[in-house]
Amino acid sequence: MTDNWDRFQNDMRRYGLTVPPGARPPWAMIRIIVIAAVVVLLAWNSYYQVEPAEVGAVQRFGRLVRTTPPGPHFKIPLGVETVTKVPVQRQLKMEFGFRTQEAAARSTYAPPSTETKGESLMLTGDLNVAVVEWIVQYRIRDPRAYLFNVRDVETTFRYMSEAAMRQVVGDHSVDEVITIGREAIAFQAKEELQRLCELYGIGIEVQQLVLQDVNPPDPVKPAFNEVNQAIQERERSINEAWAEFNLAVPRANGEADQAIRAAEGYAVERENKALGDASRFDALYEEYRKAPAVTRKRIYLETMNRIIPKLGSKVILDEKARGVLPLLQLDGAVKEVKP
Fold it and tell me: Where is 243: in which H helix or E strand?
């Protein structure tokens, strides 16, 4: 330490400067300060905080060694370990065809640019042009795949979403894209985008795809409004016809089924009645064959027993009787004759 101090004094004299003899630096204090600064720097470089909606991907010399949950953690400092925070529990959003400047009660949007116009301008299946604006809401499902499988995940995901939407729009007519097929197109584009995410293994789960706005290009909007109105009128007429069809056809089918069931029931009833009558006749014939006189008399009495009550009030007289008038009243009432 003395040699260093002497060397320092000689260097100062060489430049015409003198150092007082008693001005020796506090080497012990400097050493303590340097060590404390190094310890504080290492501790500061080792500590990191993971937010509640995130996980920390710890990489050692670029290789993923572990993932840490939300909360305070420590890592090896001096660039040996680095931490990348991935928002796995947060719903992320990506806009296509427009950009939101401020999201509030009344959102404001950026003016159209070359990039947004290129994203939204699409060719439909019937060789027409439509301007399609949509939103994709997604979540990071696999941090390892999100960080390491693809170099630039956000750009790749944007290209994948645009490719999926162009493919689905190219399979539909302009009428379906602008009017009646928007929900089906959004669902098919979401399924196709999720398939591409699984194919490339980027660790993203597509939660929702929403068509924000779909319009014809600006130069043809006035003429297209009339066409769109005619299309809507046609669709309304078609829907009304289908409603009438769905009302009349089931009613006709129900009435037809009812008539068929009634005819089938009547046929079964007649058949069963005919079989019963035939069985009764066979049984009666069997009894008649055993005792003809008795059976004939019993049949006669049973038949008269069924018929006479249906004839009403009758007076039966002997053919030799005289003086019938006192027994019959002129008002049609029958006088009771006691024996």
Answer: helix 221-290
**Is residue 201 helix, strand or coil?**
coil
List of long-range contacts for 34-42, beta carbons under 8 Å, 24+ apart: 41/77, 42/77, 42/78
The pLDDT tens digits of the residues spanning 194-240 come to 999 999 999 999 999 999 888 877 655 555 556 567 767 877 888 88
- Which two tokens mark 156? 């790749």
- Contacts of the segment 250-256: beta carbons below 8 A, 24+ positions apart: none
d(CA 197, CA 204): 6
96 strand-pairing partners: 134
What span, in angstroms and rounded, lies between the C-alpha atoms of 255 and 251?
6
Write phi, then psi, for 62 (nearest 5 degrees).
90, -10
Comparing 22 with 154, which gets the higher pLDDT?
Answer: 154
Distance of CA 85 to the CA centre of its chain: 32
Q: Which residue has the tokens 């101090």?
A: 5
| Residue 319 per-residue DSSP state | T
Residues in the chain: 339
